[in-house]
Amino acid sequence: FERNCPNELKELLPSIEKVFGKTENQSRLDNDVISLIEKLRTKPIENLPYFYLDCGVEDAFLDTNREIAKLFKKRKIRFEYHEEKGGHDWIYWNRQLRKVLEIAESKLKN
To answer: Which helix (H) or strand (E) holds 79?
Structure first.
């Protein structure tokens, strides 16, 4: 989180550390999404689940989401990524919830 944490979201750091531990906490290091993708050795990649990502274009984590999508593409991991109007807030998440549930239903049927 700290690696790409925008200044305007630094206020979230205490609550994140309370839940997940300090940055140097081994559990946090072991579960860093970008590091996991970079180190991924699963063969075949097809055995990984399908991933859905979306991010608001006003979200301070937009660059991080783009980096994750870029890594997924490079590693040929099945995913879809969308950028929509909105930010890192409940207005955005509530609007996207129906879409995410519809995609989950579709993928689980297959």
So the answer is: strand 79-84
Looking at residue 42, what is its pLDDT?
Answer: 64
Per-residue tokens: 56: 């608001």
Q: What's the CA angle centered on 59, arms 58 and 61, to 5 degrees?
A: 140
From the CB of residue 77, how many other CB atoms can be counted at a distance below 10 Å? 19
Q: How far apart are CA 26 and CA 18, in angstroms?
A: 14
Q: How far apart are CA 85 and CA 33, in angstroms?
A: 24
28 membership: H or E segment, kind and range: helix 26-30
CA distances from 68 to 74, 82, 108 (A): 10, 12, 23
| Residue pLDDT, tens place only, 66-95 | 999 999 999 999 999 999 999 989 999 999
- Token pair 């979230």 is at which residue? 12
